[in-house]
Amino acid sequence: MTLEINDEFPEQQVKKEAIKLGIYLGILSLVIGIVSMFVLAATTNFTVTSALLTGFTVLFSIGISAYFAIQLRKTAGGFWTFSQALKSIVIMFTISVVLSSVGTAIFNVVMPEQQQIIFDKTINFMIESLESAGASDDVIDKQVADLEKARDESREFSIGRLVKGLGVNLIVYFVFALILAAILKREKPMFLKVDNAGDAAHPWQENN
């Protein structure tokens, strides 16, 4: 027996879920980013701690994003096309990126000390790395000057810098959304086969 499947995609329901999960993802990203800044500012081994935090953040972001995307597919009824998946995941990522980026910018304005300490540690680490690699003083001075300029600019809130950062992050997350949509797409079949126990012959019927 076959049953025809309803081909209607619950767009509004999925959109609402994407917005909700995007808020959750943005808050998680913001909290992880702020905690990471405090940890990096307090650590005595900047290199190792930075590498560990970066690895954890990347793996966690990939894992939780994939999990939320799967939840979106469940909201869609278990089936969605590539374009439906991409649109839903992009909505979720856009909400997340805007929320976490704006939240981080506000935090850096309210509590700039943490970011300044991290910039100073980054400068010291870069000087040590370049000196170990045998770089010339001119190269080191230029790199240090660029970082000090970025540090000084970060002390003041800038709409242009925020928009630029948002643009870069949105491009990165759009590529990630393409990958997730390609992996998680599941086309809905036109018909679904269903075993009908009532159609099966009973033992006494088979003997007749």
From TrEMBL:
Domain of life, source organism: Bacteria
List where the protein spans the membrane: 21-42, 48-70, 90-111, 166-184
Under InterPro entries, the record lists:
DUF4199
Q: Does the keyword Transmembrane apply?
A: yes
Q: According to its UniProt record, what is one Pfam family this protein matches?
A: DUF4199
Answer yes or no on keyword Cytoplasm: no
Entry keywords, A to Z: Membrane, Transmembrane, Transmembrane helix
Q: Report the protein name in the record.
A: DUF4199 domain-containing protein
Task: Please name the source species.
Answer: Sphingobacterium oryzagri
